[in-house]
Amino acid sequence: MYFQLAWRNIWRNPRRTTVITTAVIIGVWSMILLGALMQGIAGEMVRNGIATLTGDIQVHHKGYRSDPVIENSITDSQVVETALGTILPPGALWAPRVRVNAIASNARHSSGVTLVGIDPGREATVSFIGKAIAQGRYLTLDDTYGAVVGKALTDKFETRLGHKLVLMSEDAGGEIASRAFRIVGVFRAEMKATEKQFLFVTMPAAQQMLKLKKAISEVSIILPGEQQADEVAAALQNALPSTEYEVQTWQELLPFVTAVLKMYDGFIFLWFLVTFIAMGFGIVNTLLMAVFERIREFGLLKALGMKPWWIVKEVLAESFFLLILGMAIGNSLGFLSVFALSVNGIDLSSLSAGLEFAGMPRVIYPILQGKDVIMANLVVFILGLLVSAYPAVKAARFTPVEAMAHT
Amino acid sequence: MSLDVKMAWRNVWRNPRRSVLTMLAIAFASLLLVFMLSWQFGSYDTMINSAVTIHTGHLQVQAKGYNDTGDIRLVVPNPAAIAGILEKTRGIAAYTFRADAFSLVTSKERTYGAMVIGIDPAREAGVSTFKELIRQGSYLSAGDIDQALVGELLAKNLQVGLGDELVVLGQGRDGSIAATVAKVKGIFSSGQEDFDRSTIHIPLTYFQDVYTMHGAVHEVVALCESLGDVPEMKRAVAAGIRNLSKDDHQLVVLDWMELIPGLIEGIKMDLVSGFIFYIILIVVVAFSILNTFLMAIFERTREYGVLLAVGITPWRLTKLILIESSSITVVGVVMGIIAGSLITWYFQVHGIIISGAAEVLRQYGLPERMFPQLSVLSVTIGPALVLVITLLTALYPALKVRRLRPVEALASV
Question: Which residues from chain A sit within 8 angstroms of residue B170, using beta carbons?
Fold first, then answer.
């Protein structure tokens, strides 16, 4: 009965109800949409980080992470391969790599780079490089002297496809090894820093140059699902002797991204609260007005024997309908706009220098996360009912005599 | 006129609870905007200042093209001439010279590529915060020759400590081989991983000697007395260079925006996204208070009917209502400005620590504790936006009332 009464009451003044519902709708819509946009940025940062040679999980020789030198290589890759074969869930992909700091130089320039020796076929399935070639071609396994370098690096070195670069690095024996490579491909990446940093050659070429025999620096793994990285990493670590190998998830490998994600979560929640407070004033005011213009009515109800608690419930039911209505439409609008935007994404390329500085992607695809949607609605609903308690109690406090005297 | 104001003001207080709530909604929005904008501006100041003082300075004089390629042959051949110009330019707080070369750095155990930077120890301390970043050992002093300051991460990678020797191998300005042995005198940490992993600093005179610079440098770095002076200083220095001999005509003056283009764009992006948030917030507030304005009028339909019947013009009625809603708005905005400024001022003195963000901030060279910065702009922009949007909201009911017909209005309860 309360609900019926309340529903009729809110439509006694349709204009008022429309206006306040609009406030709730805009609030909820902005919460959903902006939450999704921020998650989209965060998600893209994670995806980028993972694709830029991180992967969901990496296996290294112990100590490689803090001291990435050639002595900390995995000499017996067979052990790791066996463990991967038994533990990885079906659909998981992995690739071995040789990865060392090196110096690239040509006649005019020299600069520090990360030399990455890859298995071209496997690598293409786990990281960005397979799809990133802008000029020339990707590596093939028999490219003994071919290298793929970033566009920004070729600009810096004033060089181009077909020209030579000399790479120098320490080999397994502690001597300086150097070898000339010909640029067979130029890649583009989301970040200029990536283009400048990584230089790809085939794994056999790197192993030969560095006298590594069959040793590798790391194994990068991409899992089919998303959330299970922790469990798989733990299982892998159990299967491999911890004195020799360390297994890390992307959260540990990309501390910066993990910190940004946490900050975004906090920011989204704060934004929800702030938006709520902005519409909270409107909700309270509207209900107060609705209550005060019905003083006589409440007095009459009380005189007829209605308990104060019932009146509280009736007013709260009105607030309930206002909120539910606003939330329903706000959510649908939010979902619709997220859906519309996620088709093409929001292209921010014109701000690319700023984006790069902030470590953000160039195109943002909003991502709806269940927890944000639930949180937004919970904030609005629970706090909405809470603030409505004020007008509700006010309404219950009118004494019949003073209320009936009111005009 | 004053009668109208009086009437409007009394109308505001006929329902104090409603008016106060409306004012509070407006005050909340203004308060939040004052705080957020002060916060944003404050963090930009901190960002620019720390970026500028860690490395780039406000202005740099370099050879044309050096900024893009870092080619060791593109030099400022006669630094003393530039120093002369800077000395004469009022408003330049400090300046220093630097030279850089990418080289191989080898310890007993390891070899890494690193940027070797030649600095003038005394002058450098006036321009950048570099001296304060030394974590172990000590900073370079005037007479030092074969001493080096090494980034913390690079020292770790090279496995060197204080007093250990480093072999530096690179290419000199004339293409010859530059090689030397330097001792680690200090280890620095800026928190910016790139910088700490890939640079070592040696005395400038020593650098010029090793890399056969013949007295030349790569960058003349200047710090202005205030950020606002930078464009003017830039013009003054550029004019000074044009008066120099032919040799120096290849020199350019770059300001911090050209030296770190990402910074200014990052700031623009942050401002734009901030404003999207603010506009949405204000619209939500506007709808919240539209109701109050509407109701204040519709519950007084009868009253307006009487006023119209006794001959008040519709325009005057509109004016009356507008004065009423503007008073509410103005009181709310003023409350918001005062409360917002007080809160902001508190944090401006004490600073705010964003828990968990320290790691993110450090990568941008920012301190963990941030300070909002009150300014005329940050205090006025937000509330002005609120004022404008709220007054636009108030127009709807005020114009609506003009359609009232006295007879119908009188008939309504």
Answer: 110
